[in-house]
Amino acid sequence: MKKQKIYEGKILGLSIYTGKIEGRKVKREVIEHRGAAAILAFDEDDKVILVKQHRFPHGYVLEIPAGTLEKKEAPIKCAFRELEEETGYSAKKMSPLITYYPSIGYNAEVIHCFLASGLKKRGELQLDDDEILSVVKMNLKKVIRMIKTGEIQDSKTICAILTYASKKKLN
Question: How far is CA 153 from CA 56, 74, 94, 103, 144, in A?
Fold first, then answer.
């Protein structure tokens, strides 16, 4: 496939791919993204650690902590970094939970979800200048209820929470 870069921004790019698949001419517009790491973490009271973050153009959303991978950064390293930056907690261990493509038809982004364990409160949030968020802690059953009612619509949060709940139930 031939790639033509149309746009390159801070966190994503846009490319047009042209070529042949199974002998048929195809043209695909693809959002290029380095990927992200998302973290499902529980505090000392077994509450899910969420962030209420402003996500333009949707306004404030409730989601698990997450962030874009730096260039050549391993997803697990990003998970450790983002958890501490967005919540003030550090984790002793990150276990892979699920990896998925949020928009597989036109987006190269892959999200790596991890389960954090061995948490310790380390300090204050270390936010980027354009990050607007606060930490919210909630019972897992309430988070699942909010997913079912549509109050939580963020895909990484839905995938991580429901994967965790299904694995916990099956074991």
Answer: 14, 27, 24, 14, 11
Of the pLDDT bands very low, low, confident and very high (cuts 50, 70, 90), residue 31 is: very high
- Number of other CB atoms surrounding residue 67 within 10 Å: 20
Strand 36-40 with 48-55, pairing: unpaired
Regarding whether 38 and 23 lie in a shared domain, the answer is no
pLDDT in tens, 75-99: 999 999 999 999 999 999 999 999 9
Whether residues 113 and 65 fall in one domain: yes
* pLDDT for position 142: 97
Q: Would you give the distance in Å from CA 40 to the centre of its chain? A: 10
What is the domain range of residue 123? 34-99+109-170
**Sign of the torsion angle spanned by Cα atoms 68, 84, 154, 41:** positive
Residue 40 lies in a domain: yes
